[in-house]
């Protein structure tokens, strides 16, 4: 398990530029090595930085397969839909084939949407092994949640499925699906972006704490991959170094 690589920049805009440049670098390496790039994206504050910054990078978009690390089970015309954001703000800007941005089926109940998403993932990750994403792009909420894995929630212990559903998310909307921790920790490269003063205290707990019951974001430790944290000065201000 590699130690986290922590990058601190003065402003959120600089953090976003660095992040997008790393994503493009990893994408191009994966495409060169095996012809495809598999990436999971998150919603929340991260989405606008990816959609603004990635179109400026040089890469072969036709080789990208973009999944959602988590998704809210709401219709595609609802502003809570993460798919809606990427569809409206990325698809038209880059030559990514529409079918390579893989949405959930929001017409299904959450548990069925999770099962359906597993079958969509299995088209790109066939077989029964844990999927190994080239990269997972993650956010962290002020409570330390990541994906839709919330502190103290039983979903943190799920190991028998690769995508799970939640119907009591403490952060609305309540119905969601999420990659489970074994999949998150099987990625070749997990990357968090966390900016702003509101994240400073939780970040200290996640990166420097030694809690018996670690917060969800602290449980992201790829077993055979890299872990990056991209922070701005405000978020990093309580860290020791
Ligand atoms: O609800 C969610 O929150 C997290 C964190 O969002 P942020 O706005 O605090 O950065 C996000 O990573 C996740 O995808 C989303 O569903």
TrEMBL record:
Its EC number is 3.1.1.31. Gene3D superfamilies: 3.40.50.1360. Pathway: Carbohydrate degradation; pentose phosphate pathway; D-ribulose 5-phosphate from D-glucose 6-phosphate (oxidative stage): step 2/3. Residues 11-229 form the Glucosamine/galactosamine-6-phosphate isomerase domain. It catalyses: 6-phospho-D-glucono-1,5-lactone + H2O = 6-phospho-D-gluconate + H(+). InterPro entries: 6-phosphogluconolactonase_DevB (IPR005900), 6PGL (IPR039104), Glc/Gal-6P_isomerase (IPR006148), NagB/RpiA_transferase-like (IPR037171). Keywords: Hydrolase. It comes from the Eukaryota. GO terms for molecular function: 6-phosphogluconolactonase activity. GO terms for biological process: carbohydrate metabolic process; pentose-phosphate shunt. Transmembrane segments: none annotated. It is an enzyme of class 3 (hydrolase). It holds the Pfam family Glucosamine_iso. Hydrolysis of 6-phosphogluconolactone to 6-phosphogluconate. Belongs to the glucosamine/galactosamine-6-phosphate isomerase family. 6-phosphogluconolactonase subfamily. This is 6-phosphogluconolactonase. It comes from Lingula anatina (Brachiopod).
